[in-house]
Amino acid sequence: MGKYTKNGKIDFLKFLFAVVIVIHHGAKNVIDIENPLYTGGSLAVEFFFIVSGYLLMASISRLPDRTLPLGIETGKFMWRKIKGLYPEVAVAFVMGFVLDLLFKGRGFWELWTMSFHNLFLLKMTGVGMVTINAQTWYLSSMLLCMFILFPLIRKHPQMMANVVLPLVGLLFLGYLCINKTHPRDPSAIWKEFTYKGNIRAMAELSIGVSLYPLAQRLKQIKLSTLSRIFLFLAEWGCYTVVFLYMRNSLASRLDYYYIAIFAVAILLSFSQQGIDANWYQFGIFSFLGKFSLALYLSHHCWAIHMKNLFPALSNNRRFAVYLVISFASAGAIMLVSFLLRKLGKLLKKPIRKLLLVQENQPAA
Closest Cα to residue 59, out of 6, 137, 13? Predict the structure, then answer.
């Protein structure tokens, strides 16, 4: 299947699209104007879904031959996935929970019983009543769909990546296009048995998976400098078109054309055949990729409460304060999450000793 190497450009793009989402939610909630900036910013989530599908396939392609039962291997893989992002999710939940306690007039126990599902990323199952950090719907949908996709891809990688999932992506997006007009508003509509956002997630993760074998084939082609310049221009031209579309476009069926453009751009980014392929292999881009998760998780709770926090400020000043707070709280989430991971490593061995019977110690 080909060897996967870390792509600093993707990390940089994660940061750019996270900033778009921050601006979108800020303009929508913080500023009192009719047509805010990046009205189509929610479409940036499509980038994250497609990339997540690609990386899922890349991770599976690197796994050794299976020695564990498929169900156990799936559980272990998904546990690693959840563990990798959970400290940031938990810290962001606490931050949003405190803000809701202060400004929404509910008591601690009432708010907890109505919102605990958010802490466990269960929002897109339909469980729960109150949303803390609404943007975590993306992580909830992504994980639910990956629980289904991982064992299928692991057992039939070639068939799933080359035949089944390209069709799933097209058919699911076509279903949304015919029945729901556009892919946005993920948890506003319950369709028969699940949220609209889960159908969107499955479609775009499937597209991402199907891009993996195409990118591996493209990587193997020896291109001239002129061809690499052309791919560079095509790739960034696609991203530029999508950025311009998101800037002031309301949700419509046109969204699906731009999802296709996204897919082409992401394919070219992962192929690493553009003239800029080696420009992003520095630590700063890896940091921005990690920072993008914290920024994505940190901003929304501030966006919905900025008018309560700073009612006297003008639109521009309130928005500027919102951006500063969002970036600062993202840094705080990263720092606290780092410390929690360190603490977890330090306490792992003592807790195991306390709770588990040691092999050389007879049971009481």
Answer: 6
Question: Using an 8 Å Cβ cutoff, are 91 and 334 in contact?
Answer: no
Q: Which of 24, 21, 54 has its CA nearest to residue 39? A: 24
Q: Please tell me the distance from the alpha carbon of residue 132 to that of residue 128, in angstroms, as a whole number.
A: 11
Tens digit of each residue's pLDDT (9 = 90 or more) over 230-242: 999 999 999 999 9
In the DSSP assignment, the letter for residue 197 is H
Give the closest residue to 143 by CA, choosing from 15, 53, 232, 30: 53
Say how many C-beta atoms besides its own lie within 10 A of residue 260's C-beta.
12
Q: Give the residue carrying structure tokens 């690499």.
A: 228
List the domain boundaries for the chain. Answer: 8-355
pLDDT in tens, 312-336: 888 889 999 999 999 999 999 999 9
Predicted model pTM: 0.92
| CA pair distance 261, 200, nearest whole angstrom | 16
The answer, yes or no, to whether residue 46 has pLDDT greater than 90, is: yes
Count CB neighbours of 314 within 10 A: 11
Amino acid residing at 213 = P
* Separation between Cα atoms, residue 187 and residue 49, nearest integer Å: 16
Alpha helices in the chain (DSSP H): 8-29, 45-62, 70-103, 108-119, 137-155, 157-159, 165-180, 196-219, 225-248, 255-271, 283-298, 300-303, 306-309, 315-355
Distances in Å between the Cα of 21 and the Cα atoms of 16, 293, 295 are 9, 12, 9
Place of tokens 């500027």: 320
> Of 180, 267, 273, 194, whose CA–CA distance to 227 is shortest?
273
pLDDT in tens, 251-305: 888 999 999 999 999 999 999 999 998 899 888 999 999 999 999 999 999 999 9
Exposure string for 27-54, b = 16+ CB within 10 A, e = fewer: bbbbbeeeebbbbbbbbbbbbbbbbbbb
Over 60: is that where the pLDDT of 5 sits?
A: no
